[in-house]
Design a protein that fits this description.
alpha+beta, Alpha-Beta Plaits, 2 domains, 4-stranded antiparallel sheet, two-stranded antiparallel ribbon, 49% helix, globular
Length: 301
């Protein structure tokens, strides 16, 4: 009986222990969550609003056009609840902006426990490197929709207008919410809450210890290692638009032509295999983007 009581206690203790988690959403396949700068600004503000509802800390985040990433510290249940609440708010924003109802409902939220320090550091770097992995032609520090700019800034950290200096009506107008927000939170000239207000950058700095270690992590390609370890590689999806863009690059680079129509049958078959090998996309999506019958794609990949 005593052993059973101890086991129950340990189980309850572990369940309520604070841990580190990498949370990522499955990508929307045919639509974008964030289309304009205004959408991203509201998305960042909603992170700040959402984190106030749960006893968690945000170590890093990155918003991409059709999915999002977080590295969180807290009890697992709270971290999952945060992610689900954020997804619910995004769904509401998409409905209000574009009349799109239920697009986020089927989007899965994946959570991976970061069980050791190396795993945690790689996950933070992975999240902040997302624009590089997506082949955007900008450096990570130039990407506005992540927390990358808050670490190791010292006295040079960005400052904005304190919410306490705004009227209640102005706050509602900017944040699109009546939720109570700390007066000390600051917004930039575009109305975005500065990530330094709600990201635990001090904790991240203590983990990396030195700016050089942080920069080294951002420069190192951690995607393959982390994706294989967490299973993200099996979950990554591309929109048709993104895949079509890659097709155009491959056609130009591999075959020296501008359109798929200029390819021979043999080259089209090879292109199918390249897309499968390079991006892991399904035969159905390859067929859809290349306008090739799926049964033909099935036979060649």
């Amino acid at each position: 009986m005593n052993w059973q009581m101890n086991d129950n206690y340990l189980s309850s203790y572990k369940k309520n222990m604070s841990g580190y988690y990498h949370i990522t959403s499955a990508a929307l396949k045919t639509r974008l969550i964030f289309e304009k700068d205004e959408d991203f600004i509201t998305g960042v503000n909603d992170i700040a609003l959402c984190v106030l509802k749960f006893n968690i800390k945000i170590l890093a985040f990155c918003l991409m056009s059709n999915h999002f990433h977080f590295v969180l510290q807290g009890v697992r249940e709270n971290c999952v609840s945060f992610a689900e609440e954020y997804k619910r708010i995004l769904s509401m924003r998409m409905r209000d902006r574009r009349g799109e109802v239920g697009l986020m409902k089927s989007v899965e939220i994946h959570i991976d426990e970061l069980s050791d320090t190396e795993y945690l550091l790689n996950a933070i770097a992975y999240v902040l490197r997302n624009p590089l992995a997506a082949r955007m032609m900008i450096m990570p520090y130039s990407y506005r929709w992540s927390s990358v700019g808050v670490y190791f800034q010292g006295a040079n950290i960005d400052r904005g207008i304190m919410l306490k200096d705004l009227s209640f009506r102005k706050r509602i107008q900017i944040l699109k919410s009546r939720q109570s927000v700390p007066d000390e939170y600051e917004i930039d000239q575009y109305g975005m809450i500065l990530p330094s207000c709600f990201v635990d950058f001090n904790r991240v700095e203590s983990l990396f210890r030195y700016p050089s270690m942080f920069l080294s992590a951002l420069a190192r390609k951690v995607e393959t290692e982390l994706e294989l370890k967490t299973g993200i590689a099996d979950r990554i999806t591309m929109t048709d638009r993104e895949l079509a863009s890659e097709v155009n690059k491959l056609v130009a680079a591999e075959y020296g032509v501008m359109t798929i129509a200029q390819l021979s049958k043999e080259d089209r078959v090879r292109l199918c295999r390249l897309l499968r090998r390079n991006f892991g996309v399904a035969a159905k999506q390859i067929a859809r983007v290349l306008h090739i019958p799926q049964d033909v794609v099935d036979t060649v990949i």
